[in-house]
Amino acid sequence: MRIDVVTIFPGYLAPLREALLGRAVGTGLLDIAVHDLRDWTHDVHQAVDDAPYGGGPGMVMRPHVWGEALDDVLAADPRPARLVVPTPAGRPFTQAAAHAYAAQERLVFACGRYEGIDQRVVDHYAASMPVDEISIGDYVLVGGEVAVLVVVEAVARLLPGVLGNPRSAAEDSFSDGLLEGPAYTRPEVWRGHAVPEVLRSGNHGAIARWRRDRALERTAERRPDLIAALPPDALDEADRAL
Ligand SMILES: N#Cc1c(-c2ccc3ccn(Cc4ccc(CN5CCCCC5)cc4)c3c2)n[nH]c1N
């Protein structure tokens, strides 16, 4: 998979070269290119923003700079691409979206700043390619770069060969519609807190049941919306008895 990121703060994307993602790039599983939007400006001030039509707070990113940048970035690789534009007004980015993006040959991220990117940029490219305006959560950031880091990590870990243990991705939170339950490791007792007995019993059936019960309890307490969204046949009799 190839990932391109266009931003006025390329340094914000440095974490993409670290750890798990850095290894994925190093082993050729992932090809990441970060581009400075200001490279496509032609004025001495390298202006990328202007006042919003109709008034309102802050500045809006100008369409012509984005158009020149995205035209060049898209033309640099023949693979079909999906343009992803983080915005507070975007559709929620979910684990399902991460799986969908992991199946893409190429993702191009447009990182806005200020009050966002002139809408005509999205509208223009949506006429010729898939374009997603996404949000990583119901809070307001200062720009799209952090959202790109979140999305790229969520997607890259799903690519075959990136995670050391592929079962991790398969058994993710949300993979069965529930939050995962508590996890424990040595020592058996830590500051007077003991590991639940069942986890040391070797009884794999009982362990699976215990883990499912804790996941259901945690999900019902913290994310009742996920319980409500479960398909009718998702909960078995033992689940319902909880
Ligand atoms: N993903 C994601 C995000 C983002 C995100 C993503 C991308 C950009 C580009 C710029 N910003 C800053 C910003 C901040 C506020 C507003 C809303 N204003 C309200 C008053 C009228 C004008 C518009 C717009 C833009 C961004 C924020 N925030 N939260 C997420 N989950």
Task: Describe the overall structure.
The protein is of the alpha/beta class. The chain has nine helices and nine strands. Strands 2-1-6-5-7 form a five-stranded parallel sheet. Helix 3 links the parallel strand 5 (about 80-90) and strand 6. Helix 3 (about 95-100) packs across helix 5. Bound molecules: the ligand N#Cc1c(-c2ccc3ccn(Cc4ccc(CN5CCCCC5)cc4)c3c2)n[nH]c1N. Ligand JEK binds near residues 56 and 134. Ligand JEK binds near residues 116, 140, 141, 143 and 147.
Throw out a few tags for this protein:
single chain; 242 residues; alpha/beta; Alpha/beta knot; Trp Operon Repressor, Chain A; 2 domains; 5-stranded parallel β-sheet; two-stranded antiparallel sheet; 34% helix; elongated; binds the ligand N#Cc1c(-c2ccc3ccn(Cc4ccc(CN5CCCCC5)cc4)c3c2)n[nH]c1N
How do the SSEs run, as a string of H and E? EHEEEHEHEHEHHEEHHH
Mean pLDDT: 95
Note the beta-strand portion.
15-25%
Largest sheet: 5 strands, parallel
Number of strands: 9
By CATH, the architecture of the largest domain is named 3-Layer(aba) Sandwich
How is this fold's topology laid out?
Blueprint: E1 2-7, H1 19-26, E2 31-36, E3 49-50, E4 60-61, H2 63-75, E5 81-92, H3 95-102, E6 106-110, H4 119-126, E7 131-135, H5 145-156, H6 166-170, E8 189-190, E9 193-194, H7 204-222, H8 224-228, H9 237-241
Parallel strand pairs: 1-2, 1-6, 5-6, 5-7
Antiparallel strand pairs: 3-4, 8-9
Helix pairs in contact: 3-5
Ligand JEK binds near residues 134, 137, 141 and 144.
